[in-house]
From TrEMBL:
Domain of life of the native organism: Eukaryota
Keywords: ER-Golgi transport, Golgi apparatus, GTP-binding, Lipoprotein, Magnesium, Metal-binding, Myristate, Nucleotide-binding, Protein transport, Transport
An annotated Gene Ontology molecular function: GTP binding
SMART domains: ARF (SM00177), SAR (SM00178)
Lineage: Eukaryota, Sar, Alveolata, Ciliophora, Postciliodesmatophora
Name the UniProt record assigns to this protein: ADP-ribosylation factor
Length: 188
């Protein structure tokens, strides 16, 4: 697996398998981020309806649904993968102001699911290289994250297409460290 997981990677392996889901609207950069972490490079992809990608080994399972189109009912497919999820990665196109409310709606539905109450949330504010991109604080406000209690969250600025993936390794490291802390408390 790529070097995306750095030092946090070794800490998590003394605990049971970690399950992470990657979700968000179509064209936000989910697949690019996943390929960057899996292969260390950007592969061109486009979802006409939906595609499913995974990074899976003994210790870590990352599931990514890349949903095309605008049918909100398709997000119910995510629920198949909610069991035992410890981390949620929500990818948002920071430049897509037109659909930021749709992105909020999808994230809100995910966060309200009881199976995900204990999951740590990482929001990748992707496409920060674009001139009209919303900054992480603006996205946090639009997603009402400051109102959340009892859930660790971070909005990480990122650009999956730049070099090694600006902000990607920092986001994954934060997420894995937060999961590690929760596992320390849970498993001692």
């Amino acid at each position: 697996m790529g070097q995306i997981f750095s030092n946090a990677w070794q800490k998590v392996f003394k605990y049971p398998r970690i399950n992470i889901i990657v979700v968000g609207l179509d064209a936000s950069g989910k697949t690019t981020i996943l390929y960057k972490s899996k292969f260390g490079e950007v592969l061109n992809s486009q979802s006409l309806f939906y595609s499913y990608e995974t990074v899976d080994n003994r210790e870590l399972s990352i599931k990514s649904w890349d949903l095309g189109g605008s049918d909100r009912s398709i997000s119910s497919l995510y629920k198949r993968f909610y069991e035992n999820v410890q981390g949620i990665i929500f990818v948002v196109d920071s430049n897509d102001r037109y659909r930021i409310e749709d992105a909020y709606y999808e994230l809100d539905k995910i966060l309200k699911d009881n199976q995900l109450n204990d999951a740590v949330l990482l929001v990748f504010a992707n496409k920060q290289d674009l001139p009209e991109a919303m900054k992480p604080d603006e996205i946090a406000r639009k997603f009402k994250l400051y109102d959340i209690q009892g859930r660790n969250w971070l909005v990480q600025d990122s650009c999956a297409c730049m070099g090694r993936g600006y902000g990607i390794s920092e986001g994954f490291e934060w997420l894995l460290n937060e999961i590690h802390k929760k596992n320390e408390r849970k498993f001692g």
